[in-house]
User: Which sequence fits this backbone?
């Protein structure tokens, strides 16, 4: 991969400082984490509607 990237380099006419690059990584990671949490919530809601969550029945029985 490194050799490929070295072979296809082009002249850069701009500069991205390390802080901006790290900000891009942080935003990307945050969006990915938020998407995974949202997906997990939707899956749990779907299984809750179908009544296939065995751990949910145990919680309501103990209350």
Assistant:
């Amino acid at each position: 991969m490194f050799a490929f990237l070295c072979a296809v380099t082009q002249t850069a006419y701009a500069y991205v400082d390390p802080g901006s690059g790290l900000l891009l990584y942080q935003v990307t990671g945050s969006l990915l984490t938020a998407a995974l949490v949202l997906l997990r919530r939707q899956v749990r809601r779907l299984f809750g509607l179908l009544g296939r969550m065995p751990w949910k029945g145990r919680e309501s029985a103990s209350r």
Observations:
- Residues 18-62 form one domain.
